[in-house]
């Protein structure tokens, strides 16, 4: 069963035609990798799913519901969390205040789900360590951990993340891989845009490869990893 489906999605940004009929399926309970060269349309696809840009043609369906024309707050309210490539951290607020903003059901830090916070602290110890520090003072890796932590501070059905490993040290990438593995095991459906092939191979259940604003290939990650000729043709490199 697919939790998220895009059919024939076209997106224009001003005079630019970026997506040229994207067909994408994200199976429920699995981790789907969205791969492709720079400029292939991956980030635009994520932003279109979230309603930050609206599709000019085609449809976006979540849990069987057409969400193509919904606003971004409405889409988020359905249980979809989005972590952009820029991470969207509020630099002048503390880590705690960033988390509290994302925990919409909580009026103060004491109202946040204690068991869920302990789970997040175990996944990302830096979030607990720097709880009362300004988020702008964190390292790049710590900011990425905070961005993901905000996305999961309340239960979500779908987690959409744009290049979570970008610029991170290998040790932090491994920590991130472990965390996403736990999220997947907890039943969260995940859609990741990723350039780090090691990251993609270790985590992905299914894969979709984009080029020129279209999905050129979709299937299992294991089969894609084993087919070096297909990798070379679609990505210009072998895994």
Automatic annotation (TrEMBL):
Alphabetical UniProt keywords: Amino-acid transport, ATP-binding, Cell membrane, Membrane, Nucleotide-binding, Transport
Keyword Nucleus: no
GO molecular function, one term: branched-chain amino acid transmembrane transporter activity
Database matches in SUPFAM superfamilies: P-loop containing nucleoside triphosphate hydrolases
Gene Ontology terms describing biological process: L-amino acid transport
Listed transmembrane segments: none
SMART domains linked to this entry: AAA
Segments forming domain ABC transporter: 4-237
Superkingdom per UniProt: Bacteria
Recorded family membership: Belongs to the ABC transporter superfamily.
Protein name: ABC transporter ATP-binding protein
Source organism (scientific name): Xenophilus arseniciresistens
